[in-house]
Amino acid sequence: MDILGLGSKVDVEFLLDPQGQRKQIEVKIDENKRSLQYIYYDGEDVNGTIQIKLKKNSKIEHQGIRLEFIGHVEMLNDRSTVHEFLNLSKLLTFPGELTESTSMDFAFQNVEKPYESYIGINVKLRYFLRVTIIKRFSNNVFERDICVQQLSQFPEINNSIKMEVGIEDCLHIEFEYNKSKYHLKDVIVGKIYFLLVRIKIKHMEIAILKKENTGSGPNIYAESETIAKYEIMDGAPVRGESIPIRLFLAGYDLTPTMRDIQKKFSVRYFLNLVLVDEEERRYFKQQEIVLWRKQEKDKDKSKQSAQQYAHYERPEAATNKSEDNGTGANSGENSSVNGPLSSENNSDIPSD
Amino acid sequence: MQKTADTSRGSIAGISMDNQEKLLAESLQNVRQHAFAMKRVLDQQSVMEGLKHAANMLGELRTSLLSPKNYYELHVVVVEELHHLELYLTDEFEHGRGSHDLYEVVQYAGNIVPRLYLLITIGHVYIRANELPRREVLRDLVEMCRGVQHPLRGLFLRNYLLQCAKSLLPDTEEENQEENKTGTILDSLDFILLNFSEMNKLWVRMQYQGHTRDLNRREQERRELRILVGTNLVRLSELECVNVERYKTIVLPKIMEQVVSCRDAIAQEYLMECIIQVFPDEYHLNTLNEFLKGCRELSPTVNIRNILISLIDRLTSYSTRDQQNIPENIQLFDIFSEQITEVIKSRSTMPSEDIVALQSALLSLSLKCYRDQFEYGNKVLENTRQIFDNIALDTQVTTGTQAAKELVKMLKIPIDCYDILDVLKLNHYKLVLQLLSYRERHTVCMYIINSILDKETIIPTAEQVTQLFDLVSTLIIDQPDGSLEHSRQTITNEDFVEEQNLVARLCNTFKAINDPDQQYHIIKTCQDTFKNGGLERMRFTYPPMIMQAYALTFRYKDIREQDEKWEKKCQKLFQLSNQLINTLTKLETNDLSLRLYLQGALTASEIRSENAETIAYEFFSQAYTLYEEQAGDTRAQCASLTLLIGTLEKVSCFGEENHSTLRQSLTQAATRLVKRPDQVRTLLLCTHLFWSAQRVDESTQKSEQIRDSEKVIACLKKAAKLIAQVMDQTAQVQLYNELLNSYIYFFNQNHPDIDINVLNTLIEKLQSDISKLDSTSSTTHTSSNDGDEFIRSQIQKTFDYLRQQSQLEKFQGLQINN
């Protein structure tokens, strides 16, 4: 709602939801600034009323009033590059003169909104309505952002993530996350099995990392941000222990995973499993998870409540191992290690 | 609710106690601050803020710096503060205001320790408010606690869980259909058993964390924490739906599995003990085999002895308490016997004291639970002996060792719970006793005798006496391995005296009731045994035997109507006694044998069997001979002579011939004494031999008093003459007084030659002597005043008596000053 100095004569108000039925969301514009925005989904109409308010006894001569619905990607480190992927335009009034405040209804039918609104570190994907009162010298421009959320279908394939990692003769663990794709209100449930422990572990945590990649070619910017840091184990386990993981996502500021949006940017999420030993050495393994937005339905409530105490159950016959954790059955298949644990010896500089 | 300050992590090594105090104080201070903040915002109905402060408070429990004891202190305070939160939330639910998402909300806490404490607290509240299904939440909590793998923090966390779950554990067979999945007893068992095994694992792990030089401290700390693990077992035992069957099929196997697999001696010892103590006796009775099998699988360093003993003792006291009987179908003894054998076999390094202690417990069990089945106890004793023989045949257990001490304890058990006659039936008892060295054998034998005396057990047959002597022979005859002790076996050694006095007293318990012949056998048995004991022991052992022999003659006399041979038997007894006393005469003092002879003479006189006079004379003459041999010790001689005189006065079986010989000998002996006063006094006693002493009239065969008044007067006069020769005036006066008393006696006895004038003469003499004595003593020695005083009061008493009597007609003419 850009109220410019010279707009003192005129103001524009967007009435998008006269019945007050549309959900609103508080969007974090930057560190200090938040705004309430209406939520729209792909294919939904965007309609409403524009109120043009004139100050008393003033009049505006114009070359026409235009309404646009725009979707674009702004690269924040390069203001000049704005990539529009959507621009619908309507002429609300032919050129003439406004002498009093007036309202005009409008409707964009079945608007395709292919992407989710996003405000990142280096990139912004915005949808907004823009009213332009065209004038001879400088136009009066009014904008109103809306928030678009991209609902996804249940993923058809959603395997669990299971991986055995380790440092040879030092630490072998096997971790399992119940899914590879999580919706934003989902719960990550999993387990860590300790197959070999020869280092003195102090604690273990799981972190959600958000990686935002922008640009292409030589101008790639990669940003990594720790969204959540969550201790899942205190103290040193011994061989054979299995440690439960249960991490609720709803409480964190997450977006769906975005890949190659307009060939301009990607936002991806990783689970980072970190083990810290007594010398503050950190051993970690990152694993990408896909986040998606699920349509919220009331019937999910009960399901959600059961998730409060959900535990990871192994799907197949491997269950006997979890019961036998007292003795740490270490059968042959476990001895191969799929991937190495990364280790960084940075007791001075914490990794995040 | 992200995280609290990360300062508290660090190494526990090298922290001084001062520092500990300080750290604890700081932590407590922080806890109080956070708790205060929490309560303040809760008062303002701000649950979320309250949870945030609670999480901060719980952050203090993340410390690694405190010792277990101080961590406990901290934990107590935190849990107490946490209780406020719980009460607040419960209250909210009761007023229908409770929020429904807290169980999820608290799971956002970044640090696991505060998160789990909060989760447990909320879970507790939610289950009570029926907000979430009980079964699921309990399962969730116990599983989620796996996240804390730090032993100390994990133990306390799970302890808190157990504490909260206490009132929530379902204890029903059937699930309550109406309510939110309440769960059944099986869920409770799963919950506690899982919590138990996790806690035990953490507890065991403490042993292996840290430097080896701190091992002792760590073990100490572990012992302080053991109750935390044990509480799980207590909780299990409190569940009402746990019955014998369930205990046997679910509870015990699961506990055992954990106990055995943890392979940690401290844990195994404690937990086995715990199982024994917390579960009811009936359970143990029905799971003996399972439990004992578990025992065999314990780590070799576990002190299995204490565990087994504890179980045996528990079952023993169960069976002896309230007349509870061990069910017929449970072969308690056989099971234990077998299992203990197995245990001993499987542990070749088991010290022998432990083996003995186990056998002791088994013995105690067999004696107390199967009182009538001697073969059980006997079998245990046999096995014990066998075990030692297997180690080294016929070798004694070194004195002072633990094994010896345990054996002593073991041998005391039958003595305590049986009387000796039953113990004698355990024919292996002796064989085990023989395993011991001299000192321990001595201890046990003393214990046996003391027990017999305390219980006043009567030993009725010669056979049993023989067995008993066989058992306590250590005290009765010299022992080949007791050579060091021999030198000490004299009358001057108090211990020896005490020991032999006990043996002597033991003889008094040998009583063949209603069977004098048996009693005779007993006496013979005693003689056969005691004669090997050496002179020093005979001093103690013979007298009771002789007295028993005398006593037996009276019993024979009592049944003389039924037993024709009674006189012969008495004769035999007297002969035996004579022989025995004769042996005693070899002792350095004659007093004992002299008295025994005199007693024999008296007895013979009382019995009046056919040849009583001969026997009595023999005994008396022996006594007199001993008296004569006593020369040298004037005081002893005087005392002995007094005894002789007294005895002769009482012995009534002598004819005139024997009697006159004896009385004259004694009278002469009296005058032959060295000291004048002794002469006087014995002579005065001799007067009775001529007066009230009895002899048998040859013609009538009746006893009659001698009444020889002339001799009496002669003695008295002789005495008076002797008194006149006494130099010491004080003594003289005293003797005059005694003489006067004798005269008064005979005056009262109507002696024909003693009249009131004789008395008057003596009184006058005495009075004048006293006044003389007064004048001299008041000027000369004052030191002998006490003696004087005594004499004066003696004389005074005599005079008082006379004054009283002077009223009587008989005493008319008595002249005595007032």
Could you please describe the fold and organization of this structure?
The complex is a heterodimer of chains A (352) and B (818). Chain A is mainly beta and 352 residues long. Chain A has two domains: 6-149, Immunoglobulin-like (Sandwich); 161-343, Immunoglobulin-like (Sandwich). Chain A has helices spanning 300-307, 319-323, and strands spanning 10-15, 24-28, 34-41, 46-54, 60-62, 65-75, 82-93, 96-98, 102-108, 118-119, 123-133, 140-149, 161-167, 171-177, 181-183, 187-197, 201-214, 221-234, 242-248, 258-261, 265-277, 282-292, 339-340, 342-344. The longest helix of chain A is centred in the last third of the chain and has 8 residues, at 300-307. Chain A is elongated, with a radius of gyration of 26 Å. The two termini of chain A are 37 Å apart. Residues 1-5, 317-336 and 345-352 of chain A have low confidence and may be disordered. Among the domains of chain B are: 1-132, no CATH class; 136-259, no CATH class; 280-430; 728-818. Helix content of chain B is 70%, strand content 1%. In chain B, a hairpin with a 6-residue loop joins strand 1 and strand 2. Chain B is elongated, with a radius of gyration of 45 Å. The model of chain B is unreliable at 1-14 (pLDDT under 50). The interface between A and B is medium-sized, with 28 and 35 residues.
In short:
The complex is a heterodimer of chains A (352) and B (818). By secondary structure, chain A is mainly β.
